[in-house]
Amino acid sequence: MEKIIEAHELTKKFGEFKAVNKISFDVKKGEIFGFLGANGAGKSTAMRMLTGLLSPTSGAATVAGFDVFSQQEEIKKNIGYMSQKFSLYNDLTLMENITFYGGIYGLSSNEIKERGALLIDRLGLTDIKKKLLKEVPLGWKQKIAFSVATLHNPKIVFLDEPTGGVDPITRRQFWEMIYEKADQGMTVFVTTHYMDEAEYCHRISMMVHGEIHGYGSPNQLKEEFNAQNMDEVFIHLARGDQYKLK
């Protein structure tokens, strides 16, 4: 399968502190790739480098064929991004958010109108399309934010802790939306500290203190450590047990 993200010894330092230390991995086209780890493990810093929002200190990486050091603007044109805060404006209506982000993504007025109508219809949000986003429940904001982040059909969508603070049922519904996009050929790169969400990914990378301590499919890693679930795998990796999968 085609590699759409490649990183080799990618590093980010803040002064003497290494937030991300020589991480190497690849992501295949159409793959759901999980970037897991505890809070503060370096997941969001790594994602910001890959999305062109933060310049690396050293190493190498390409995203959709573009270099993270010299082609950051080209990267931004080929990706979607959903932050922990859902990237929506609470003082705008649903349709105003769609129009705003559609314009940022370079869609024409007709494309925004057509795709916005399709988004609203698919999510069943006709009754609230004129409401301010601050009046919409958190779970719906999450689904809307994901839909808006993929409005322009990007090659890759980056999701930074997208399911934080929502109930398990809404989390599962959100993952169903992710599967739908992956089935359409979109690559999904998702960071999370929920270890059970690793089971939803094709492959995962597990970060510990800014470094990759585990890399492979969930089943491979569970087999490697004779673990019943990903929480047990993470415990092994966090205490320094070595994995051999490549």
Automatic annotation (TrEMBL):
Sorted alphabetically, which Pfam families does this protein's record hold? ABC_tran
Recorded hits in SUPFAM superfamilies, A to Z, give:
P-loop containing nucleoside triphosphate hydrolases (SSF52540)
* Matches recorded under SMART domains: AAA
Could you tell me which residue ranges the ABC transporter domain spans?
5-234
Q: Name one GO molecular function term.
A: ATP hydrolysis activity
InterPro entries noted in UniProt: AAA+_ATPase (IPR003593), ABC_transporter-like_ATP-bd (IPR003439), P-loop_NTPase (IPR027417)
Q: Which PROSITE patterns match?
A: ABC_TRANSPORTER_2
Signal peptide range in chain numbering: none
What is this protein identified as? ATP-binding cassette domain-containing protein
